[in-house]
Design brief:
Number of helices of chain B: 50
Strand content of chain A: 15-25%
Helix content of chain B: 55-70%
Number of strands of chain A: 7
Radius of gyration of chain B: 36 Å
Structural class of chain B: mainly alpha
Strand order of the largest sheet of chain B: 1-2
Strand order of the largest sheet of chain A: 2-1-5-4-3
Oligomer: heterodimer
Structural class of chain A: alpha+beta
Helix content of chain A: 40-55%
Amino acid sequence: MSVIHFVLLISRQGKVRLTKWYSTYSKKERTKVIRELSGVILTRGPKLCNFVEWRGLKVVYKRYASLYFCMCIDPDGNELEILEIIHHYVEVLDRYFGSVCELDLIYNFHKAYYILDEILISGEFQEPSKRSIVRSVAAQDSLVETAKEQTGSISNILAQAAK
Amino acid sequence: MEQLKTIGRELAMGSQGGFYQSKEFLDLVKSIGEARSKAEEDRIVLGEIETLKRRVSEPDIPKRKMKEYILRLVYVEMLGHDASFGYIHAVKMTHDDSLLVKRTGYLAVTLFLNEDHDLIILIVNTIQKDLKSDNYLVVCAALNAVCKLINEETIPAVLPQVVDLLAHPKEAVRKKAIMALHRFYQKSPSSVSHLVSNFRKRLCDNDPGVMGATLCPLFELVSTDVNSYKDLVISFVSILKQVAERRLPKAYDYHQMPAPFIQIKLLKILALLGSGDKQASENMYTVVGDIFRKCDSSSNIGNAVLYECICCVSSIYPNPKLLESAADAISRFLKSDSHNLKYMGIDALGRLIKISPEIAEQHQLAVIDCLEDPDDTLKRKTFELLYKMTKSTNVEVIVDRMIDYMISINDNHYKTEIASRCVELAEQFAPSNQWFILIMNKVFEHAGDLVNIKVAHNLMRLIAEGFGEDDDSADSQLRSSAVDSYLHILGEPKIPSVFLQLICWVLGEYGTADGKYSASYITGKLSDVAEAYSNDETVKAYAVTALMKIYAFEIAAGRKVDMLPECQSLMEQFLASHSTDLQQRAYELQAVIGLDAHAVESIMPSDASCEDIEVDKALSFLNGYIQDSIEKGAQPYIPESERSGMLNISNFRNQDHHGASSHGLKFEAYELPKQTVQSRIPPATLASTEFVPVPEPMSVRESYPTTIVPSASSDAESTELKLRLDGVQKKWGRQTHSPATSTSSSTSKKTVNGIKQVDGSNTSNSSTWETYDSRKHVEINSEKQKLAASLFGGSSKTEKKPATGHKISKPSSHMVEKSHVRKSSMEIASEKKALVHQPPDLLDFGEPTVQSSDPPSVDPFKELEGLLEPTTQLGSTAAAATNSPDIMGLFTETPGGTHNKDDSDILSSLSKQPVTNMVGGATSTQVAQSSKGPNRKDSLEKDSLVRQMGVTPSSPNPNLFKDLLG
């Protein structure tokens, strides 16, 4: 039903960095999907299409440094749009973390999930305004920080990042 | 600035309630990062699961600790392991008062649970409470969970609150409420059908984000019922116009495009609304034309919008001006160097040729290029296009190419698809039956196990029925050529089962028909098949029946039957087979051989598979037998409708089943147990049902009216035998084993056979094929043009040069054309092979690591690094130290510019030159180009940099961790 069936982040070595399933997949299927797709995507050459047809669906992927961002869509979707959604996600991550790198995502995978939840809701692309995403995530964080009595410095930095 | 970012990262890492101070977790992540194999990773994770199992069940865990455990569970689950033991703790966490903890709980449950999980019932109450919270962040977290977890049964529990939230002052909440309502609509349209008007209302929300969100449900509503939303065309058009004219806040701009994602969604909706509706479409022409003009075709997002425009134009009522713009955009896509754009161009072309077929012609060479591209994705897309534009004039070339490709791939999913497409095209456009059989043979040979069995049955029917109404000689010629080709194919080592069944059937039916092959030759071949594929009982069954037919024809013709010794031993083996089906057939064979010529002829008339058979459905010939039995005191047959006990049982079962499926929230009280139902079944009836014949045999006979050997009506004894067999087979679900089913499909005349076009020139096809095989070396360009000509026809036909020099005695102009087609396809095929064998471009060294995963022990790049001068090495590591955190930096570095810090930030460079913003294809070209540059050291440095940036298991880099954590 969803426009996007799942989101996968895989490292070049085939390690899973983030998975989000919008359509229902059993645990067994999930493992199979990841194994199959990393086999297909990681072996593709650099100049080829960023799209792969797979089991009647389409997977759009893009490599950023050592990380592959993959999204699976229906065969009649607009691949270029999905490519930009991926890029948009990376840009927001980059704004949030400030020059994001793979390590940020490894250790802060839950943050990456929170941001993804602001961008995609039940597999539909949501917020086209980068600023309001970062603002919304920052609002949640700052609440967290209030609880931790660290408000001052962190919100400054987040405000900096949000600019 | 750099420093600030580093601080930000450190703070962000340490900010999660002290969670990241836990050394345990850091160690876990690190050790998994360094794991050298999947097995090692699994071992570590299993150890972690044990630890967590112990920890979470300890009493009085502080919230902070618990939160960490839950995130560790998420991590474990993300790596593909089962953390279900901890789900309940995540559920508990959502009950917590502090948002900090609650948020983690919600995150975990949305990741852990599917909508049908039993634990959801425990969360519903919390969600209800949180939806009423006055903290909008709590509401948002709850709405996220609603979207993922609420199922059909729990919708009523949260629906009123979600509807209230549509008017919430915070736009983030309104947006999520819309999406939740959309989700409800997807899961159970009836439960929210009265609320659909809310989507229309929210379309006028003054927040663009909320308006954008309503487009998702509206798109779905429009696609299910276009006519109820025609009134919105004007609104959608005016919104799109405003968006395109940059009336939305600047924050919605994306890479200099005004709200492109909203534009795309609107274009999708307009495409639906304008489809086949001239009046609605006329409202859209201006705005779509404007967008075509305004789109920046140098950025990827611009092209995404352009592509959506093309889709829209090809869907709405055609407008010549827009079609022209669309054609222009397509040709820009196809001429681009980016594979992504080529792919979109091919796709768009496939959409547009439905309206204006002539547009394909100008792009023929580009299409051929894509067809020969090494990129599988592009190739498949092109095959899809060819499939869409297949006509009777180009079917041979296209299907030949498809089959060549089908043979070359291993992906079973796609192989199935392309095989079924070949079959479909061949059935639809086959120029001749010989060609059709040839193509089918290839499909069966290479993808036989993947095609539907019906395809084989269709082919049997074609061979049996022939194509000419009165042209018997053509029919028998067709059959002889089929027999010839099958005998030839039987020499192949491994043949798919479906194909063998087909071959056996054809050999049995027509193997000896034209007198070219002796009965002993054919029977020998058949018994070879049965022996070689001895574990395939279906094939053996087909083979035995085929043997029976051959012997029967021999006897009927008055010849003496000498069973070959191998056949005899085969029969002995089958007579004692564990398969009752095989036994049955073997006994039948034995019985038939013992009969005289006259009897055999009426049992097995030759070439009678197409004859209609009259079936006595009432089984009147059994009346006497039944009468006798009833007189002797047997129970009479009770039709199903009159069996009260049976009905009740099935009723009861239904209720039971219903009760089981609708577990979960029950809003009404449970019914009283239905004792009456059980007691109403009288024991006598129950007992009698055991003896009542199951109605299945009857229905079998009805659905396969011809499942009886041709002479059935004249030979009561054999009919009875067969019928019982059918019953048995049906019961065990093995219809395909019976010879009857095979004949049935071939005799059923109801299906229309699409392959009845008679083509005069079919006889010499195979010979021309052979002759041109040898001429392979011709100039590429003219070859491509020729292939294009054969594919696209039309004006390009004039490009066919006689210079390629083959003299044909010209039996007819049609023949000449055909041979052109054949030839070019052969040559292109050989060319393709040559292309594949070409050694890889040495300069394409850019990213060798992408193609092959490096062995864990030896690191070639480490070795290469050693070859560099010490200074460069220093430089590279320094660069790595400053740049490694930048995930996007890789693509923007210019050769030699590794020291330039400003360059490392892709975002800054993005704003400077929007061109780098292009699709991945473009950015990766940049990388490739830079590594192709004259300076070899630079490319090596880059490689080492890339390697250091990843958390490579082969080269654990302690600096990587030290850098970030201080």
